[in-house]
Amino acid sequence: MRKLYPILFLGIFMYFSGNIFAQISQGGVPVSFSDEIITGVVPNVQVDAPDMEIIKAEDALADAKGMAYRNGVPLKVNINPQTNGIWDYFPDGSAMWRLKISSNGAEALGLYFTDFHLPEGAKLFVYTANKQFVLGAFTSFNNNENGLWNTQMLPGDEIIMELFLENANDDYRMQLDEVGYFYRSTLVSMPKDKSQSCEINVICSEGDGWRDQIRSVVKLNMRLPNGYYLCTGSLMNNVSEDCTPYVLTADHCSVDSQGSAVTSTHLAHWTFYFNYEASTCGGSTGSTSQSMQGCLEVCSDSYGSTSSGSDFFMVELNNDVPVSYNPYYNGWTTSLTSPGNGVGIHHPAGDIKKISLCQSITSSYTTHWEVYWSDGVTEGGSSGSPLFNQNGYVIGTLTGGWSACSVGEAGAGTGPNEPDVYGKMSRHWTSGGTTSDKQLEPWLAKGTGNTTWSGRNYCTAGLSDMEYIDANITTYPNPAIDQVSVDFSQYNVENGNIQVCNVLGSDVTEPATGDFNGTVNIDVSSLSPGVYSIIITTDQGKIVKQFMKQ
């Protein structure tokens, strides 16, 4: 394959603008941002930058061979609050530690801890020297049993760590052994590293009919043996409907440009970004506010030099996906029937989420589907992204190909009429080997014999989809006098309908149709006293909310 596809993310919280771009954290403001700080000078640890001439030469060779796309390298350090930085102690018994870390020329920096444990009440913030970009507060919630933890990237070549302890004598562990040095395809370098001109934002009309599937697709920032790499993945449903956070991507996303495979330690530092997409069809940026860290390998099968595998890699996230992320867990099918049409949804070149429309999907290879596009293409960063058939089921994952928006745009011999190839779900299923670590079937179908399974919205243990929707759309006040408000902030409805009916089922107000994602106020001032029903139609079905008019 000429091109393979990983991706990247930069997660930040812009302090002065109030926009949040951060991994799971508790928010808040660092103590040092107040005027009461005791010490003004923060010690600095200068970390030697890599030899970029060597890095560029290595990347040029790997890129020419269509290998995984590297955008950062690890710099080894030995930093902890016992031997580095400065402490301030406060009259109430609390304490604060700070340290600046810098490395010349980096577009962005990230921090990778090998022993991380915070006590209750402790808060860790990481921010740029100008205080415009802040991550945190990170707390005991972020502790992992293995002690491994890392931050997202922050822009620029210097960042500050700030640890606050409610009690200066509290036990904590914070051993920093690696600084991530990111030098290309970062959010900082956009738009020069953004995707090609024919790519389509998922919010555009081309995404209509695929809104659930769009919410399943995530952006991966992967730590591999010799650096940091980029890919796309998607959440997968299983027959137990038990909310297990499986993410499916490509196996080549787990191997670095020198052929070394990922380890469990590296997987602990993988980061997954949800809903990174533009809010308008012409938009060029999106919120990176929703992310998760860490996973375990479940099963995989390589493509390899023999071209006999289907190139899949499935992991289980270390934590359940927060309901606030509005996740969708994809359905799947192992059918070998070539679908009439379908789409690919992906993060090309580290850009916001895009959708590509299939012109044809043919079963040209034993292991892979061959796909031609009518609109949009795939790029580096798209690897591992799902291919959906016309029914919205995942039928494959992206290995590579030759498509590009224009002839030669992504390399010689490429263009808008060239195909891409996706590893088939039917090959992922049982063809990787005889053991469960080489097959998807034991994990998604669990021995039931099912070869097709539907996706589900907002996977919440113990609740059906409609029960979840009913619980997350609320109405108030009750009883009502002049108006009733319907709150859709916890569950957005697209192409929905709202009716107000009397006890006989007759409409008593003008029905409302459209997309509902905030608060809808209904005028009921002219209604006679009595009991009424608000009927809300969603893409999953109808729910009914009753209220009394005084």
Please, could you describe this protein's structure?
This protein is mostly beta strands. The protein is built from 6 helices and 37 strands. The strands form 7 sheets. Strands 3, 6, 9, 10, 12, 14, 15, 16, 17, 18, 19 and 20 form a 12-stranded antiparallel beta sheet that branches. A hairpin with a 4-residue loop joins strand 7 (123-128) and strand 8 (133-138). It is globular. The termini are far apart.
Question: How far is it from the N-terminal to the C-terminal residue, by CA?
Answer: 69 Å
Report the mean per-residue pLDDT as an integer.
87
Portion in beta strands: 35-45%
Counted beta strands? 37
Rg measurement, Å: 25 Å
Summarize the structure.
The protein has six helices and 37 strands. It has 550 residues and is mostly beta strands.
Structural key phrases:
550 residues, mainly beta, 12-stranded antiparallel beta sheet, 7-stranded mixed beta sheet, 6 helices, 7% helix, 38% strand, disordered N terminus
Topology of helices and strands:
Blueprint: E1 13-14, E2 44-46, H1 52-64, E3 70-79, E4 86-89, E5 95-102, E6 108-117, E7 123-128, E8 133-138, E9 149-150, E10 154-155, E11 158-165, E12 173-182, E13 200-201, H2 211-216, E14 217-224, E15 227-236, E16 246-249, H3 264-267, E17 271-274, E18 290-293, E19 295-301, E20 312-317, E21 328-329, E22 332-333, E23 342-346, E24 354-362, E25 368-375, E26 386-389, E27 394-401, E28 420-424, H4 425-430, H5 441-444, E29 452-453, E30 456-457, H6 465-472, E31 474-476, E32 483-487, E33 493-501, E34 512-516, E35 519-523, E36 530-538, E37 541-549
Parallel strand pairs: 2-5
Antiparallel strand pairs: 1-8, 3-12, 3-15, 4-5, 5-11, 6-9, 6-10, 6-12, 7-8, 7-11, 13-24, 14-15, 14-17, 15-16, 16-20, 17-18, 19-20, 21-30, 22-29, 23-24, 23-26, 24-25, 25-28, 26-27, 27-28, 31-32, 32-35, 33-34, 33-36, 36-37
